[in-house]
Amino acid sequence: MALFQYKAYELYEWLTDKKDMIVVDVRNNTEFEKFRVEGPYPFTLLNIPYFEFMEFEKESMAKIPPNSRIRIVCAKEASAKYVAEIIHNNGFDDVGYLRGGINTWGNLLVPKLVTASGDYQLYQFIRPGKASCSYGLIAGDEIMLFDPSRNVDFYLGFAREKKVRIIKTFETHLQADYIAGSRMISEHTGAEFLANDKDFAGARITYTKLENNRTYGFTADGPQVQALFTPGHTPGSTTCLIDDRYLITGDTVFITSIGRPDLGGKAEEWATLLFNTMNTIKKMDRKLIVLPGHFMDWEEADSSLMFQCTLGEALDRNRSIYEIDTVEGFIEFIKDNMRPQPEEYKKIRLINANLEQVDEEEQNTLDIGKNECAATAYARMRAA
Q1: CA 116, CA 63: separation in Å to the nearest integer?
Q2: Residue 119: Cβ within 10 Å count
Q3: Coil, helix or strand for 326?
């Protein structure tokens, strides 16, 4: 069997199908520790830097179980191909290397149908490499997007496949952990960019200011989208209620934990906002379906490998947070769970406000790696 290239989506399918294979990441240990391939089920992942194959081929090969299916990952593809040739020459037949390098995994989006209810379809676009989710709402020949990533080609391709045109793109808040796609999608398609002025007032972006409790609809028939201001993670954090059934919560309500309010450097001020928002959320219908902007771990996925739960389940799962009964106690909880935000977050916010521009290579560097948006002891311990 000859060496072959594979794509990020194929790797995702192999991982979700529990294929018997070994993933070999040949980046250096520092880059590997920062960000690696993860999947919903356990699999064998080895980190053997490519320079070890160059200098110590025999010793490196000894780390790989014989007769294994090998899938190699590197930063930009060339090193993976180099190592693939070495492994193939050592008698391994089933050896593939990731096309385009680790960034293609980091930017991968996996569409999942949440519901096809009457006159609309709602999709969750899972980004495994970022542990994040964006959304698409289709009615007739139109689609609205919510918190799209910078993988603009995916959303444009998805719209073509579904024979719909993108009419609106919502940002639930000014993102800090990844480069958002709404501005670019709006520029490509003419779609209306909608965002909360509390976050975007200083942005160099043409956008429509969201209004609290206002509904936004399709040109013809279709579900209504109600904007609900839920400040705390940021002052302009907004939740989108679709058809009085689905809550696209951005970084406010997670399946595990809530959005951290300290990323803007105003932990006490924003924690007070979030505490008030939490009390509002607790009064909402517990049967509403929460569709979060991020997940902490694949254990949060349901049997269909989607990230959703009822609001009641989210409240119960995070009872220790939602039962904090004073703003002082909540501020103390936030302080106890604060950890340094990644250095790149400040720059990403500027990029998302179009106040700074960087080239494609730097965008890839800034955008890679899992999110750090939750306020939990779990997250603090993981970062330690």
Answers
A1: 48
A2: 14
A3: coil
- Cβ count within 10 A of residue 194: 24
Residue tagged 């999942």 (tokens): 112
Q: Examine the domain organization and report whether 81 and 191 are in the same domain.
A: no
Residue 288 makes CB contacts below 8 A (sequence gap 6+) with: 241, 245, 246, 247, 310, 311
Residue 381 lies inside a defined structural domain of this protein = no
Element counts in the chain: helices (H) and strands (E):
16, 18
Taking only the tens of pLDDT, the chain with its 384 residues reads 679 999 999 999 999 999 999 999 999 999 999 899 999 999 999 999 999 999 999 999 999 999 999 999 999 999 999 999 999 999 999 999 999 999 999 999 999 999 998 899 999 999 999 999 999 999 999 999 999 999 999 999 999 999 999 999 999 999 999 999 999 999 999 999 999 999 999 999 999 999 999 999 999 899 999 999 999 999 999 999 999 999 999 999 999 989 888 777 788 899 999 999 999 999 999 999 999 999 999 999 999 999 999 999 999 999 999 999 999 999 999 888 877 777 888 999 999 999 999 998 899 888 887 666 666 644 444 443
What whole-number distance in Å separates Cα of residue 328 and Cα of residue 326? 5
Catalogue the active-site residues: 74
- Per the domain annotation, does 181 fall within a domain? yes
Which range marks the domain in which residue 144 is found?
107-344
> Which DSSP helix (H) or strand (E) runs through 160?
helix 152-162
Smallest CA-to-CA distance from 126 within 257, 15, 18 is with: 15
Contacts of 244 (CB under 8 A, 6+ apart): 224, 226
Reduced to 3 states (helix: H, G, I; strand: E, B; else coil), residue 254 is coil
Domain boundary among 89, 104, 119: 104
Burial of 59 (0-12, 13-18, 19+ CB in 10 A): exposed
For the chain, the distance separating the N- and C-terminal CA atoms, rounded to the nearest angstrom, is 44
H or E element at residue 19: none
372: nearest Cα among 87, 175, 120, 110: 175
Pair (83, 127) in one structural domain: no
Burial 150-180 (b: 16+ CB within 10 A, else e): bbbebbeebbeeeebebbbbbbbbbbbbbbb
Distance CA 247, CA 240 (A): 6
Contact by Cβ (8 Å): 113, 275: no
